[in-house]
Design goal:
Strand order of the largest sheet: 1-2-3-4
CATH class: Mainly Beta
Oligomer: single chain
Number of domains: 1
Largest sheet: 4 strands, antiparallel
CATH architecture: Beta Barrel
Shape: globular
Length: about 120
């Protein structure tokens, strides 16, 4: 449950002294299917320095080793094709990774697969 402090809610635009912001990539990862799929939704597990990235085209979540952010590498892919059609989303909370999986029949209910972020085993 989120405990909101109404005094902290800002309903007016906040002014800044910045006229522009520039982002510079420090590293990157290409999983080999450029123009066929993309890193749609990322999540990060700080304790293991792993990134979890939805790879809907391949019905998986790619697990990236981000120990050295200048050289991300594929550690493993979490395959959910046995329980659904594709991956819709991923989230990390504590040591759990939740993967939203679309049903094979799109109009039916999907499932949420829970993984241990340390072992990468489905629970």
């Amino acid at each position: 449950m989120i405990d909101w402090n109404i005094d902290q809610v800002i309903d007016q635009p906040t002014q800044t002294n910045y006229k522009s912001v520039t982002f510079k990539p420090v590293g990157g990862f290409v999983h080999g299917a450029f123009d066929e799929s993309a890193a749609e939704i990322p999540a990060f597990h700080p304790a293991t320095k792993q990134g979890f990235v939805v790879n809907a085209q391949h019905k998986k979540v790619d697990v990236l080793d981000l120990t050295d952010v200048t050289k991300p590498s594929l550690k493993q892919s979490l395959d959910v094709s046995d329980i659904g059609a594709t991956v819709n989303s991923v989230a990390v909370h504590g040591n759990l990774v939740a993967i939203a999986v679309q049903a094979k029949v799109k109009s039916e209910n999907g499932v949420v697969a829970i993984y241990d972020a340390n072992t990468l085993k489905r629970l």
